[in-house]
Amino acid sequence: MGYTVNQVAQLAGVTLRTLRYYDKIGLLTPHTRTEAGYRIYSPADVEKLQQILFFRELDFPLARINEILNNPLFDRRDALKMQAEHLEKRAARYRKLSQLARETLRNLEGGNKMDKKDMFEGFDYDQMLEEQKQYEDEVKERWGNTEAYKESMSKTARYTKEDWERINEVQMQNLKDLCGLYNAKVPHDDPRVQEVVDRSRKFISDNFYECPPEALGCLGQMYVTDERFTAYYDKFAPGLASYYNDAIQYYCTKK
Amino acid sequence: MGYTVNQVAQLAGVTLRTLRYYDKIGLLTPHTRTEAGYRIYSPADVEKLQQILFFRELDFPLARINEILNNPLFDRRDALKMQAEHLEKRAARYRKLSQLARETLRNLEGGNKMDKKDMFEGFDYDQMLEEQKQYEDEVKERWGNTEAYKESMSKTARYTKEDWERINEVQMQNLKDLCGLYNAKVPHDDPRVQEVVDRSRKFISDNFYECPPEALGCLGQMYVTDERFTAYYDKFAPGLASYYNDAIQYYCTKK
DNA sequence: ATAAACCATTACCTTAGGTCAAGGTCAAGC
DNA sequence: GCTTGACCTTGACCTAAGGTAATGGTTTAT
To answer: What is the pLDDT of residues B121-138, one digit of tens each?
Structure first.
């Protein structure tokens, strides 16, 4: 069970084409397919779609939305809060434009010329881009390394569904390996653990941004200081985040 | 003396590319060019740009905006009134979406599942298309013949700047001819006048929609009953509208 | 069993511009 | 008079987010 494309489309008020397109670009991949290849969406997929639509409503490009939703730092509550705020701003913008239309009308009927500059007060499209920038800033602040973030953005923007699948698979494999070693109580300086760390670093370098050991060190720190990352890793095994960080820091000292 | 493309762009907050594009598609042709070919916009052009931006803000396709602004029925006051109204509706829509985001957040934090249908209440994009439809309806009502209107739409949508220039030129020529005959007190059933009417009918058929004599008859009636059309024709010579209609009605009886 | 409704993929098309590239024009300073 | 930099031109190519077919498989209701 779950929803068919048509059901989701009806529910959310989007077209079938849209859903297929989102699948194709890997933005919203239905969680299963029937034997015949029919798409089946889970409730979680539907919730994700809502998130997508909120971002879309704020004119985020789909590639950026994909980026955001694929980031482990993503937090739905944060996003909803920010979205509510910006949607409110957008409402204000339209109210202002409505006012402008009315004012123009008044001036027209009164026969007095309007200052040409005032005639476009409120149209300024820049305001809209600001929304994206603000969100980006918030994320950047957490990631710290602006350069790396940019590079990551430009690389990941053109990833296809297959790319994301591949990336996810590799990351999951690494995580599983790490998790296995952790559960087996292998110490963090063991070569097998260090090998996983090295693989991770290379993987990040290849797929996201140039990642020298120091950068990995920063990341590792974040795994224990940022509760979202901690939660993400500890979901697999309690204490995994800190174990991973220990391994990373050791890796860094050995360069 | 007029604005350069850069000045207009700054004023209105649009890009240079946008202005050039609008020129190319004949949506906003600057009223002069310098000898070197530089675009010079008049104050009237700037006002037209404001109109364009209001329509654009409501997601009217540019082709439709062109259609609307090229229609003699177009009235800036009417348009502004309608725009203010719909912009207000848009503001309301965003407020609703903001509410939805907040509600979703509350439910998320409260831990209670939200009805999937409610999760998309307010996104419905259909509402937006309604705006266009409403405007279209108003125009349709005046034009009466839905079939003809549709055909006209589909034909004129792909007209380029050159097409519009050609059309305008021919129409102006016809109008001048008619005006000359009217001023020379040539009666409306004179073959020379009837020839102009026939040319007009053929021209409409060729460039807008299939226009048999009866359809032309309707048009002629509108020229005297709709004050905007009357005003448009009487601008060239007082009484021209009714003279034109007389000529058309005579043409229709003779088939 | 067969029609109607639903699903799949592939392929081509559209809108409203963004982004170069290559070159003409104009006012300012030397 | 010459150059430099800011501003203008056209042209060509590119993109995002789907729309619209065309063609064919699947499910369900009668």
So the answer is: 888 755 555 666 666 666
